[in-house]
Amino acid sequence: MFGLLLIPGTAFLTAAAKQRFADGPNQVFSGGPLEAGELHTGPDPDWSVVSDVVTIEMQLLDPPLSRRIWTAEFDGKLYVWSGYMGTTVGRLWKHWPIQAERDGRAVIRIDGVRYERQLVRITSGDVLDGITAAITSKYPSLTTRAGVEAGDVWLFEARPRN
Amino acid sequence: MRIYYWCIAAAVVLTALAVLFVPGVDDFVEQTVLGYVGRAAR
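ok -> structure tokens follow
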């Protein structure tokens, strides 16, 4: 029986490894660096366009891996986040928030256009009320200000990189 | 029993090669995983 489980396990691990060499993630596996697409220069666009975008591709510069994540706009700024960070499973499962806190340089790709960003973690402040409201109105998410302040949700503003 | 292990080893190698080089197989794996994840999330 164990032998038979090796076959789907091999398929899973091989597909995951193969995606690491691809330009961007797919819906399940992390991908390699975001290489295709025009690199945006100049002032930021109107981020309200992401209200129609379910997921974006985001790559950290270190390590240069990409994944699909949810995003929301509030007050003209772009935000990404990671839940379950207060749990052991979440900490084992999600590495990118910890890596982003260490080095926030990132590239995001939306509709084929790449944007250089600096992820800055936000842990407190009244702005959290508006951001979490934007998140819960867009997604079936239970993200709350208290959750962010308690460290269960790691929230980052994706600022322009200078 | 020895044949069984040889068959499993061959199947593992063929699976890895298929995912790597046969078009669409990696997509199939992705969709299958997505299906399981989606069901587990509901």
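Residues 3 and 9 of chain A are 10 Å apart (CA to CA).
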